[in-house]
Amino acid sequence: MRAVVYERYGGPEVLEVRDVPKPSPKAGEVLVEVVAVSINLSDWEGLRGSPAYARFGGLRRPAHPILGTDIAGRVVAVGEGTTGFAVGDEVYGDNLPRYGGFAEYVAVPGSAIVHKPAALTFAEASAIPQSGAIAAQAVALAEPGSRMLLNGAGGGAGAFAIPLAAAKGVHVTAVDNAGKLDFLRELGAEHVIDYRVTDFTRTGPYDLIVDLVAHRSVFAYRRALARGGRCVIVGGTARALLRMVTVGPLLGLLTGAHLGVLLVRQGPRGFAPVAALCESGGAPVRIDRVFPLEEVPAALAWHGEGRARGKVVVAVRED
Question: Coil, strand, or helix at residue 119?
Answer without folding.
Answer: coil
